[in-house]
Amino acid sequence: MQQFPCPFCGLRDEREFHFAGEAGKTRPDTTKEISDADWTAYLYYCTNAKGPSREIWVHTTCQEYFAMTRDTVSMEVLSTEALNEDAA
Ligand SMILES: [Zn+2]
User: Which keywords label this protein (predicted)?
Assistant: First the structure.
């Protein structure tokens, strides 16, 4: 069983975490007209990079969202960091 490092709680079992999305996506401006294709792309499409990937995860035990950089090939966690207004 793999362990992930929560920035707030330390190393925890992977079953305590939930993938929340790809980091770096920009939500469409909902005050303007948005096509179904653009909205669908924002909600469902991911880069799905092979290798290092920066993602948003939530630790369900502490309910905190954070950024995790992990290698999608080796599954190695390269880093985790708390989100703040500058990092989101
Ligand atoms: Zn935590």
Answer: Plasmid
